[in-house]
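This part of the workshop introduces the protein records we will be handling. The structure tokens are whole numbers drawn from a learned vocabulary of backbone shapes. The record below serves as our worked example for the rest of this section.

===
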Amino acid sequence: MKFTKAVYFSLVCLAGCIQVALAQSAAGYPNKPIKIVVSFTAGGTTDILAREVGNQMSIRWKVPVIVENKPGAAGNLGTEIVGRAAPDGYTLLASSIGPISINPTLFGSLPVNPQKALQPVALLGDVPNILAVPASSGIKTWKEFIAYLKANPGAINYGSTGIGTTAHLISYLFAQKVNVDATHIPYKGAEATRDLVAGRLQFMFATAPSVVPLIKAGQLNAIAVSSKKRISAMPDLPTLNELGVDIATGAWFGFFAPTGTDPAIIKKLNETTLSILEEPAIKQKLLGLGADPVPMNVQEFTKFVHNDYALWAPIVKASGAKPE
């Protein structure tokens, strides 16, 4: 098909008008309250990060940023709420690796597929899992922990924030690699940590921000961390790799919007979130909790999410995990 100069000029003008419209759309955003839906219960890492960043957004933009916890169906409820919301930038999802990268394989069929219904906005943090035990157990070292596991076959329970979560899958891999007979007890969210503190669970791989304060308060003992390198929040804590266990993975948390949201608004949300995470006070607080900020623009985060889904799909299948 041949274009005349007039047609070409019209197309250029149309593209320019679209760019101006997008810029104007983002310039006027936000002008009303923003709702952040958190896929899990209050007190967990997703909730902690969402409230920290949401509060700063509210201060900067001078509009209310309301955080609503919508736990249920292993994080799928929050995904569905936001996936079906109007793509106008006023309903966001704060979620994590489980609902986004793992659940599409774990559940097979979902009312709303996060890989299709959601647009990645910004990575809030890359968070390792800490292998923790109740302080009441008296276990403080790796050697003591392994000796305890071997001496109590069939009597070991470990918790997670739900079937198919990284806490579950890392624990599954761990039990396989150290040849320990342990039973998985799934929870709906932060309740798992409370039962760990109470001694009703023998161990748990929990996200660093959710347990570092409990460890520092003497309620839990940390045995190891699942990251590739030691974390600044607990520099004396060895990695699993250092202890001879070939596991180096963790969890990540991010903001998402309904697919179809104005790209200019997505870009503004991304840039604002990254700017907030770079504020010295915020950055130091997150590092202290064990959450490492990893700046990514929209394109980088979108690619990261797609690659992460491809990584976890075969692991979920190999674990034989089935949704409740």
Summary: The first helix runs from residue 5 to 27. The radius of gyration is 22 Å.
